[in-house]
Design a protein that fits this description.
Elements: H1 4-21, E1 22-25, E2 30-34, E3 38-42, H2 49-59, H3 67-81
Antiparallel strand pairs: 1-2, 2-3
């Protein structure tokens, strides 16, 4: 049975792994996904949800894009943009 300490450790390990894969350069305005190779996305090309949808569609065509990376990309873009990922008034 997992303890809270186990779950905390696993969450920290996951976050550390994602931090190694995703790099945000605030000065240059890029998010880089370091999976198969460094893949740079200029954040000004994601000005709104429609722009994000374009990139999500584009990234689904990449052989190296996993479900885990896809979710993390969404989570990180939302955080950088200051958008509320879990808003319910759609």
């Amino acid at each position: 049975m997992k303890t809270m300490a186990d779950m905390d450790r696993e969450a920290k390990e996951h976050e550390d792994r994602m931090d190694a894969i995703f790099e945000y350069d605030e000065n240059l305005g890029f998010i880089t996904i370091k999976a198969a190779y460094p893949y740079h996305i200029e954040l000004k090309r994601i000005p709104d949800f429609e722009g994000l949808l374009h990139w999500l569609d584009h990234l689904t065509k990449k052989d190296w894009m996993t479900r885990e990376l896809f979710h993390e990309f969404i989570r990180r873009v939302y955080a950088i943009k200051g958008w509320n990922l879990y808003r319910r008034n759609l």
